Amino acid sequence: MATHSSPNFLSFREKSSARRARRIVAAFLIFSAVLTSAYTALSLYIATQLVYAPQQPLYATPAFFGMQFHRITFPSREDHVPLRGWFIPGVLPGGHLTAQRTIIMVHGDRTNRADQGAGLLKLSVAFAQHGFAVLAFDMRGAGESPPAPLSLGYFEQRDVLGAADFLRSGQLPYPELGRPRVIAGWGVSLGAVTLLLAAAKEPAIRALVSDSGYPDFASILEREVPKRGHLPPLFTPGALRAAQALYGINYYAVRPVDIVASIAPRPIFFIHGDKDSFNPSTNMFVLATAARTAPDAHVQTWLVPGADHAQSFNTAGQQYVTRVTDFYNLALGPDTGKVSGS
Predict the structure, then answer these.
(1) Whole-angstrom distance, CA of residue 188 vs CA of residue 110
(2) DSSP assignment letter at 127
(3) Considering just the CA atoms, what is the radius of gyration of the chain in Å?
(4) How far apart are CA 287 and CA 297, in angstroms?
(5) Which of 80, 207, 229, 252 has the lowest CB atom count within 10 Å?
(6) CA atoms within 13 A of residue 287's CA, in its CB half-sphere
(7) Secondary structure, 3-state, 23-69
(8) Sheet of 70-75: strands edge to edge?
(9) pTM of structure
(10) CA pair distance 282, 29, nearest whole angstrom
(11) CA dist 57 to 23, 187, 233, Å?
(12) Does residue 4 have a pLDDT over 60?
């Protein structure tokens, strides 16, 4: 006699299987939601740590080295962040002051215009003693300027553009010296990147020194964020996207290598330490090669023996000052001794 399964028994087994399937799906959805929430939360935390840092106080002023200077405040271009800095007039033979040839000096990441570690204040004084006026300032979120997200050049280029605007049309710190006849730029590390980005938009910056610059910043962050946060690399893209969503910062757009050729025919002097442990010296040649793709490019490079990241001035000392001021003298011409109109 043939036997048949009970309809009730089949129904019970089917219902039991369906319940198990629903539990598995629910567990998977919950697990996915927890992972997504954890990833999002960590990405937001990393983004906040990336864009905010304690602002470092200035250790000294130009007066410490016996130099005259005036404190200045000027707005960044476009978003008008009030930036603070100082203007040091150049000193000519015989002690006469000048503002004819002015260098905008741009500091590195999480430092300020005096940056003792990289020797910025000492270098500013050295330039002034060689007849170049210096405008040194704190970028947004640094030194004495207002707190702001650190965007690794994405927004800070507006600060350099604001400095150029100030020199051309702002209130003169030394009215008797007139306005600069010509403007140049010097930047180190983040400052070099920011200067290159700004100069591509501002032809008034007539000659540039890029010390320890980067071709792009996203590749640096992809290496440094996991290392400093002790997290897997998979969190880095989320953190960079979170920074864009929260603060409007597109780190992937900070790519001097894409725009450096457009600076020609204005001359660029690339400097890098051959012992740079943070930003490989090969990156200098990447930037220089990109700059030379312009048919009218004027590019120089100097690989400084024994210098670590942003330490070329501290390592080479007077040789650094001589080579950089020789570059500016050739690019900008001599100081004529005439006062430019206001």
Answers:
(1) 12
(2) H
(3) 27
(4) 12
(5) 80
(6) 33
(7) HHHHHHHHHHHHHHHHHHHHHHHHHHHHHCCCCCCCCCCHHHHCCCC
(8) 70-75, 82-88, 133-137, 101-106, 182-188, 205-211, 268-273, 299-304
(9) 0.86
(10) 47
(11) 58, 20, 33
(12) no
Distance CA 321, CA 328 (A): 11
Work out the number of other CB atoms within 10 angstroms of the CB of residue 33: 10
- Return the number of other C-beta atoms located less than 10 Å from residue 294's C-beta: 15
What are the C-alpha distances in Å from 53 to residues 32, 60, 83, 160, 270? 33, 21, 17, 20, 28
pLDDT given for residue 51 in this prediction: 80
Per the listing, tokens 């204040």 go with 121
Contact of 138 with 113, CB cutoff 8 Å: yes
The label of the residue with tokens 């780190």 reads 251
The structure tokens listed for 284 are 């200098």
pLDDT in tens, 94-117: 999 999 999 999 999 999 999 999
**Strand runs (DSSP E) across the chain, as ranges?**
70-75, 82-88, 90-91, 97-98, 101-106, 133-137, 182-188, 205-211, 268-273, 299-304
For position 322, what pLDDT does the model report? 98
Find, among 221, 207, 247, the residue nearest to 330 by Cα.
Answer: 207
Question: C-alpha distances in angstroms, 245 versus 81, 236, 289, 303?
Answer: 21, 14, 34, 39
